[in-house]
Design a protein that fits this description.
Blueprint (H helix, E strand, L loop, with lengths): L2 H15 L5 H26 L1 H70 L2 H12 L1 H26 L2
Helix pairs in contact: 1-2, 4-5
Length: 162
C-alpha cells in the first residue's frame, strides 16, 4: 500500500471517530469514507494493473509508430519527386547538348560537302549531280561494275588454284 493510500485511510478513520454528532452525521461520514476508500482502491488497482498499463503503453507506441510511418512515407515521396525533377532536368540538358552536337556535326558535314563539291572538276561535278537527281541508273551501273569485279576475283582465284 502506498503512503498516500495509507494516509487517506487514516484521515478517513480520524474523521469517522471524531466529532460525529449523531447517527445521521455518522452515516454521512461512513458514506464519504467509503467513497474515498473506493477511489483509493481504484487508484491502487490501476497502479497494480501492470498488464493494462503495458497494453496502454503498447497502444501509445503503435500510434507513434503509425504517425512516424506516415511522416517517413511523406518524406520519401517528397525525396522521390525531388530526384525525379532533377533527373528530368538533367535529361533535358543532355538532350539539348546532343541536339547542339548534332547540329554542329551536320553543319561541318555540309561545309565539308560543299568544299569537296567545289574542289572537284566541273565534268565530274556534273556527273555526280546527275547521279544525285537520278540515283537508279547509278545504282544499276554500280551493281554491274561490282559484279564484274567479283567475277574477275573469282576467276583469278579459280585460276590460281589449278
Amino acid at each position: 500500500m502506498t503512503d498516500r493510500a495509507a494516509g487517506d485511510i487514516r484521515g478517513a478513520a480520524a474523521k469517522a471517530t471524531g466529532g460525529a454528532k449523531g447517527p445521521t452525521e455518522l452515516r454521512d461520514q461512513i458514506e464519504r469514507t467509503r467513497g474515498e476508500l473506493g477511489d483509493t482502491v481504484a487508484e491502487l488497482m490501476s497502479k497494480a494493473d501492470v498488464k493494462g498499463r503495458a497494453m496502454a503503453r503498447a497502444a501509445d507506441l503503435r500510434d507513434k509508430a503509425g504517425a512516424m510511418t506516415v511522416q517517413l512515407r511523406s518524406s520519401a515521396a517528397q525525396a522521390g519527386h525531388v530526384v525525379q525533377d532533377r533527373a528530368t532536368r538533367a535529361g533535358h540538358v543532355v538532350q539539348d547538348r546532343a541536339t547542339q552536337a548534332g547540329h554542329t556535326v551536320h553543319d561541318k558535314a555540309t561545309h565539308a560537302g560543299h568544299s569537296v563539291e567545289h574542289g572537284v572538276p566541273r565534268p565530274v561535278r556534273t556527273v555526280v549531280q546527275a547521279g544525285l537527281r537520278h540515283p537508279r541508273p547509278v545504282l544499276v551501273v554500280g551493281a554491274a561494275v561490282g559484279a564484274l569485279i567479283a567475277a574477275g576475283m573469282v576467276r583469278r582465284r579459280h585460276e590460281g588454284h589449278r
